[in-house]
Amino acid sequence: MEGNAEVELHSKPPAVGGITQVSDREFARFQALIYRETGIYLSPAKRTLLAGRLCKRLRTLNLACFKDYYELVENDLAEKEQMINCICTNETHFFREKRHFEFLESRVFPGWKALASEGRRSRCVRVWSAGCSTGEEPYSLAMFLLDHFSIGNWEIEVVASDISTRVLARAEAGMWPISKLAELPEHYVTRYMLKGTGKYAGLMKASPELRSRIRFQRLNLNTDAYPYGRFDLVFCCNVLIYFNADSKKRVLDRMVGHLGPAGYLMLGHAETLNGITDRLRTVAPTIYTSYTNAAQNNVLKPRALGIAPWAEPASLQCSEQP
Questions:
Q1: 3-state secondary structure 42-96
Q2: 8 Å CB contact between 174 and 140
Q3: Of 87, 111, 140, which residue constitutes the final position of a domain?
Q4: Is the pLDDT of residue 111 over 90?
Q5: Is residue 216 located within the same domain as residue 186?
Q6: 193 — phi, psi (to 5°)?
């Protein structure tokens, strides 16, 4: 694995809080395991972060050392999933990359509508939020698309994926602290959000209309099969920064194959493709299209979406908009 240096072994690392600190050898083993399972590369500087995030699992399982926990993870798929949940970073916001939405509104959507009126593309918009975390990104996309394509019998499908089952469960529930309202335009709050009451006071929940447009699935970008078909937009924001060059290239090459004609790939503001792949052309900062797409016309073939509506959980008491 790239970045692995010769390690100095410590036979008796000091203990903190009743748990033996992770040794150099143990860190190297976790580093290799996490890279193999997720493509995430933990540099030696992340050793303290790894130990801090895994300590809670060790305490829960009444384990005193990382060696025992590593052996458990190697032989227990459920615990391996728990470990992945622990090491993933899940910070996100609604409409986080505003430049992307401005680009779509001014430079992409008008062209799609014009082509559809001429019969040169379908009235289907298919979007993939890769690394969706707790759901703010795919719900932002669903709101934005519904707002811009509410007239003219357009079909909207948003696929949202993440490797962490913990954050996927939260995303699928579509509930957030009411303080998240500050990230949303007021007319989106009125149309798409419900305010929790009773034991759900202090929370807001996405409306059934909004949730019906999003399909969630657990997906490992390095190893799992990607969602079926091609996408008009792929959002992969602040995901590649956790991969090394080999993992980035592998993921990007696979994603290019899932971009539809004239499809766009959106990355986070801190990410760049310099020296990673030559299959994508820069359209604007952090916005790319494939060279194949750039050479083709803008005709999109119709797609059968078949999205099942979400049932509203009876246990959630929601009343008026926030």
A1: CCHHHHHHHHHHHHHHHHHCCCCCHHHHHHHHHHCHHHHHHHHHHHCCCCCCCCC
A2: no
A3: 87
A4: yes
A5: yes
A6: -120, 145
- Please report how many Cα atoms fall inside a 13 Å half-sphere around the Cα of residue 253, on the Cβ side: 11
Closest CA to 273 of 291, 296, 300: 291
Q: Would you place residue 313 in the very low, low, confident or very high pLDDT band (cuts 50, 70, 90)?
A: very low
Domain holding 255, by residue range, is 98-295
Residue 53 falls in the annotated catalytic set: yes
The residue written with tokens 């959507």 in the block is: 109
Encoded tokens for 298: 């803008």
Domain count, the chain: 2
Residue 102 has pLDDT above 70, yes or no: yes
Among 24, 25, 53, 279, which one carries the catalytic annotation?
Answer: 53
CA angle 294, 278, 3 (to 5 degrees): 145
Of 7, 3, 6, 5, nearest in space to 23 by CA: 7
Predicted TM-score (pTM) of this structure: 0.78
Assess contact for 176 and 203: CB atoms under 8 A: yes
Contacts by 150-157 with C-beta closer than 8 Å and gap 24+?
152/113, 152/116, 152/123, 153/123, 154/116, 154/123, 154/124, 154/125, 155/123, 155/124, 155/125, 155/303, 155/305, 156/125, 156/127, 156/213, 157/124, 157/125, 157/126, 157/127, 157/213, 157/215, 157/305, 157/307
Residue 46 sits in a domain of what CATH number? 1.10.155.10
303 is catalytic: no
Say which amino acid occupies 226: Y
Determine how β-strand 280-284 pairs with β-strand 287-290.
antiparallel
Q: Of 29, 121, 162, 232, which is the active-site residue?
A: 162
- The continuous run of DSSP H or E covering 13 comes out as none
* pLDDT at residue 19, rounded to an integer: 60
